[in-house]
Design goal:
The protein is of the alpha/beta class and 271 residues long. Helices cover 42% and strands 16% of the residues. α1 links the parallel β1 and β2. The longest helix is centred in the middle third of the chain and has 17 residues. The radius of gyration is 17 Å and the shape is globular. The protein binds zinc ion (ZN) (2 copies). One zinc ion binds next to loops.
Length: 271
């Protein structure tokens, strides 16, 4: 059984004290690959250095919708240059967040459009963040023909209606530990609804640790708990859920390569 954490932030300072220990623990939980997702241009160099140090880590390049602007032209130039890197398998995270930002948000929508345009130019899939902004997010994805790049709605917290619309746009749905929370009935309905070939799982660590780690710092190994929970909802074995989501990960992030050495290592752990 091999799991993938399709969205984490292990470059963040929350992991400065024990980053390598966190990665070792993720191996013990059968989490073989992690996508380390970019939120700021200024943090990208250290993110890339981390990803380059391990064969089983992949990177994205993008500026989070809540990040402070470095100027729209500079941002476009940066994303299209950083996005070209061999280790960079996705563009984002990008999208809309009307919860943490207020006022006139034209700048946020422009930044989102720019990411979609760059993803299409580079032919790399998008990582989409959306909060209190589902309608505009779907509208802009449609208007910018995001389907051509493809991508994932990460840390999905909307309902089945929004999930259906995202699936119709060709997108994948990634569920985080939130699905394990007791009151998350709408997301649990989504977890049962998403077709087998469009489902991904993630931690979004260091945030949002799943039950039974809720309230603790999250880490990639904890995606195992989310996998168990969703497999029970769908009435399948966790190993099947792992196979499905790992296959989907490599189908979507087509630049991500499975590494033979790592497969061998996993074989030893499973033995
Ligand atoms: Zn996000
Ligand atoms: Zn994130």
């Amino acid at each position: 059984m091999i799991l993938v954490d399709s969205h984490c932030h292990i470059d963040f300072e929350e992991f400065d004290v024990d980053r390598m220990g966190v990665l070792e623990r993720s191996v013990e939980n059968k989490v073989a690959y992690c996508l380390v997702v970019s939120v700021e241009a200024s943090q990208f160099e250290s993110l890339l250095a981390l990803v380059q140090s391990k064969d089983y880590l992949f990177a994205s390049a993008g500026i989070h919708p809540n990040s402070v602007s470095i100027g729209s032209e500079t941002e476009r130039q940066w994303v299209s240059e950083a996005g070209r890197g061999a280790e960079v398998v996705a563009i984002g995270e990008t999208g809309l967040d009307y919860f943490r930002s207020g006022g006139d948000l034209d700048w946020q929508r422009d930044r989102f459009r720019m990411h979609v345009q760059v993803a299409r130019e580079l032919d790399k899939p998008l990582i989409i963040h959306t909060r209190n902004a589902a309608k505009d997010t779907l509208r802009l994805l449609h208007e910018e023909t995001a389907r051509e790049a493809g991508g994932v709605m990460h840390c999905f917290t909307e309902d089945v209606t929004v999930a259906r619309a995202a699936l119709e746009l060709g997108f994948y749905i990634s569920l985080s530990g939130i699905v394990t929370f007791k009151n998350a009935t709408a997301i649990q309905a989504v977890a049962k609804y998403v077709p087998e070939d469009r489902l991904l799982i993630e931690t979004d660590s260091p945030y949002l640790a799943p039950v039974p780690r809720r309230g603790k710092r999250n880490e990639p190994g904890f995606v195992y708990h989310t996998a168990v929970f969703i497999s029970e909802l769908r009435g399948i074995e966790v190993s099947q859920l792992a196979d499905i989501t790992t296959r989907n990960f490599f189908n979507l992030f087509r630049g991500a390569k499975r590494d033979l050495h790592w497969e061998t290592l996993m074989g030893e752990i499973n033995a």
